[in-house]
Design goal:
mainly alpha; 141 residues
Length: 141
């Protein structure tokens, strides 16, 4: 590997590190106990950020596997095996959008907060099961 390639890899690592730091800073308010959003929305945000971090981890695993193949001189293999976690990556990344959207829509109903929170919790469990199914499918195909 040339020094130019090492420099590019170092820059990519630095950018990814700061991206994770920014995401953690953005997620922090969702985990505070201060009064703010309704409990159903707070649960949706917390669960959504958890699914986002699962998506980031699966993306990092795919990148690491692809880079390892490229560094061993097998560029074509990197394209074949690098995206082995695409389904779990796609499903989990969208949790940050889907779960708060469900909570937002439920806030427009006449249901009381306890019922909305139960429905959001059920949606979060269902979304977790969808991520688990996508992970099993990714690892067994």
């Amino acid at each position: 590997m040339s020094s130019g390639e090492k420099f590019v890899q170092m820059i990519i690592c630095i950018v990814l590190f700061f991206a994770v730091v920014v995401l953690v800073l953005l997620a922090r308010p969702a985990y505070r106990r201060e009064p703010g959003p309704a409990p159903s929305l707070r649960l949706a945000l917390r669960t959504g950020f958890a699914t986002l971090f699962i998506g980031l981890a699966s993306g990092a695993a795919m990148i690491a596997r692809g880079v390892t193949a490229v560094n061993s001189g097998q560029q074509q293999l990197a394209y074949q095996v690098g995206g082995f976690l695409k389904p779990v990556h796609a499903v989990s990344l969208h949790g940050i959008l889907v779960l708060p959207a469900i909570a937002w829509l439920l806030a427009r109903t006449r249901w009381d907060e306890a019922r909305r929170t139960r429905v959001v919790a059920l949606a979060a469990v269902g979304y977790g099961l969808a991520i688990a199914v996508a992970l099993v499918w990714s690892l067994t195909r």
